[in-house]
Sequence to fold (321 residues):
Amino acid sequence: MTILSQARRRVLLSTAFAGLFAATAPASAQQSGQRITITGEISDSWCTISGLMFAKGTAHHQCAVWCALGGIPVAIRDSGGNLYLILKIGDDEDSAGNPRVARMATHEVTVDGELLERDGVKYLLVDRIADDKGVITMTQEEHGIQPFGN
Amino acid sequence: MRDSLKALIIAAGLTMAPAIAAEPWNIPHEKQAVLKGRVVDALCQLKGRCAADCGGGKRQVGLVLADGTFRLVAKSNIDFAGATADLSPYCGREIEADGLLIENPAVTLFFVQRLRERPDQDWIAAERFKTGWEARNGKAEEWWRADPDANRIIAADGPFGIKGLQPKPKP
Fold:
């Protein structure tokens, strides 16, 4: 094989790979988001919107751990009731059933990241956790352990 | 004549039977719906950062509908469990998902109860999470109470998430 034919083969291969990537990447990819800092409580989206149980603070911690490990989307709920669904934290792109995220269930955190809004959902790509105060909302006296009481 | 009429009524009833059969869960803003769309992982869809098999259960997944709407599928038919195990095997393929569309002002999510690839197929209950969990951990009546990761976290930080804070003994 000549040097010219080798070069030509490389070009053809790289073109083929580029074409393959273009075919598999979604058309709407590369959405550009807004830089944002969010403060709120880490909570699972199921308990937060189902209204079937009390989903705040200490009373909800155990349940939130279960939901996060079960793969339910985890969100940060700010003081205005907005929900920001977490799709990554730093380089960790495991957004379902991630023990690292489950460990922070019901913690009050401040995070920096990128906000993407699409079809009624606020998605958050967390760059860094600027502050983690742990669990600070004390709800267990009134609500016990949700949802079963133990 | 009467038998023919009865057969006609039954046939008409079957024809008119709604395709939607999701069980209502009485969640605020819920609406029974069958979504038809392509299975994608959310990070891939939104940012073009794609993983093989939509993350194989480790990434949030959803459906891109024919009109381009992206619906995150957040919950399966198993208690405390999401739908990634149910949808990821269909990554990149079109499916029908029967469940509840929750159009909460704070967030719009879909909770799937059953799915299939084609109308001529039987519905498959969205319960794959439990199958996978039991393959890894063994049988359990309540997976969440037997989950090793959950029990590690709760043992370390307590049921309220604060070390040393324990429930009051029951009288």
